[in-house]
Amino acid sequence: SCPVLSVYFFSVFMQYYAPQVDAYGGYPDLEGSQWVYPETYGHVTYPNLSQVHQSEDCIIAPPPSTIPFHVAEVEKDGFMEHLEVQGTPVTLGWNKLNYFVTVGKRKEKKRRQILRDCSGVARPGELLAIMGPSGAGKTSLLNALAGRLPKSGKGELQGEITVNGRLREKSFRQMVGYVMQDDVFFSNLTVLETLNLAAKLRLPPALGKQQKAEIVDKVIAELSLNQARNTRIGGPGIAGISGGERKRVNVGTELITRAPILFLDEPTSNLDAFQALNVMSSLRGVASGGRAVISTIHQPRSSIYSLFDQLLLLSEGEVMYFGPAKDAVAYFAGLGYTCPKHFNPADYFMDIVAVDRKTDESERICEARVRHFSSAYLQRGADSQFFMEIENLKSGPPAGDAGLRKFQTSWFEQFILLSWRAFKQLLRDKFSFIISLCVQLFFALLLGAIYWDLGYDQLSIQGRSGLLFFVIIQSTFSQLGAVQNTFPNEKRVVTRERQSRMYHVSAYYLAKFWSELSLKFWTPLVYASIVYWMTRLNTGVDNFFIFCLILEMVAMAGMALGLFISALAPNQNSSAVLAPLIIILFMLGAGFYQNFDKLGAWITWLQYISFIRYGYEALMINEYLDLTLTCDGLSAGAACLRTGTEVLERTSISPDILVMWRDIGYLACFAIGFHFAAYLLIRFKGSRKFISLNPKQKAQ
């Protein structure tokens, strides 16, 4: 009797206390009567184990609807509380979408079709996955639906895209959150600071500070980012959050707006299996909050596949299947393509819809199979069902508000917020700031030691002129080098934020300029003070202050040139090549190495575009105009230059104080001109135009 009682109590214990994963960890088998759970991940449940069978690598159990669930009270993966959707829930429909691009040059131009008669619908509360092999048209379809197909390449979109049964309007872009594949952020900001800034820039002004903070807290909770909220994002050489957390922060910056539609391009790219599952589980929770979530994904693991409500399978730009993800296995089995038991459905689907182009024979077989899937799907008549569903929505409330503002905050508010971010980014990079300051002090002390107490004899003339030219060059290089990589480092972040209409480009540029100026304004003054008094240049007090002014203007022109090069260069390598080339040209045009009066007209123009020339000329006039020299140290047979005016005339510089002030004015003009050119480059070079929200109708 004892063995019998032991078995009885053990079976009772296992029946009620053995843990098992819930519906978020499995997928249906071929018959649909059982579910397969390859991984033990998700919320813990306690099913009756008489219905569960354990194998070597998976668990077979009844469908989740027949299993009594017990969800843990502690929130996991954001399923407990969801951020409410702003406005009316949105159903997005598309009918007979065709997308063409022109490739090649001139006579070799060809019109290539990327999407072919794609139809479907994305409903609120559902997670729609767009799958397919590389080159199938996943991202093109996603961008077409989001209104982000670029105009470049002479693309043409045909078909119909509707929002709650009505054609898209301009307000559609304010109803959409778009998560790009690259997770790029300002590395020195924390998760909380990043999301707070997004909330302040993207939420309407009618919401108060407290309401915006509550929305940020809800987003952090929904995306399971509480533990990382005060951690820096991080980047190259800067410790920060994990890849999965970066992806969720990327989602959070779009979720902040409470947009009813969320688009994501390959949200699991560059993530390990565990982080990818975390991200997709969070998106499953986001969809449960009443949003239509549409995501491209390449080849998800089985536990991720089980999270999808709807599946759109593409190959060669055509729809192979669109419908409930749980029904796809049975659908393809009905076409004669049976997924092996306990095999990941996503892997199997990718195998059968991919086109193998290794040989002509394999390509022919694969293309025939793809045509078979496409025709079978069209014969199914799903497109007409979508059309009827979209037509029925026209009687409901419209989505969005045509009166939405392009920017949610004023220009001045944008400037203040972006200045705060720029200062945070700079001040937290303490190592770079300290290194820059130490370099300035080192060169100032080095020059002071080399040119210590120049004196006023004939030998001092060469030393003074050389010193003045060197301080101009050193100030230019130090300021230019500090900012020449500014925009290549921030380009992708700014592009994403501009496409999300977070701020004006002018507000961003002026905030960046103001932050750089505030920190770099003082270094030329410290540098000038050390060099001037150690070398005992012209001891007049007014000469010293003018010296500082000229050096400050040269530094500002150098910084402006650095920002211009930064805006012009597509990457850091290009800016590293451009900067020395331009500076060398300006140095040659300064007139220190060669008197331009002796050169031909073919090269003299160089002196007029060199701000270094105007800075050097102004320093020379300030130093020599009222200077008296002795004839000590005069070489045999050499003429004695007794005044600074004679030195200026010898170097073809006009000994006129008005010329000095004119040169200072020119330096200011160069600084303003470089800044304006840099702004225009960012404004127009970084802008992207998209194809119209309303596609052209296909000719009948």
UniProtKB/TrEMBL annotation:
It is a multi-pass membrane protein. One of its GO terms (molecular function) is ATP hydrolysis activity. It comes from the Eukaryota. Keywords: ATP-binding, Membrane, Nucleotide-binding, Transmembrane, Transmembrane helix, Transport. InterPro entries: AAA+_ATPase, ABC2_TM, ABC_transporter-like_ATP-bd, ABC_transporter-like_CS, ABCG_dom, ABCG_transporters, P-loop_NTPase. The keyword RNA-binding does not apply. The chain crosses the membrane at residues 431-452, 544-565, 577-596, 664-682. CDD domains: ABCG_EPDR. GO terms for cellular component: membrane. Residues 98-341 form the ABC transporter domain. It is found in: Membrane. PANTHER family: ABC TRANSPORTER G FAMILY MEMBER 28 (PTHR48041), PROTEIN SCARLET (PTHR48041:SF139). This is ABC transporter domain-containing protein. It comes from Eutreptiella gymnastica. The lineage of its organism: Eukaryota, Discoba, Euglenozoa, Euglenida, Spirocuta.
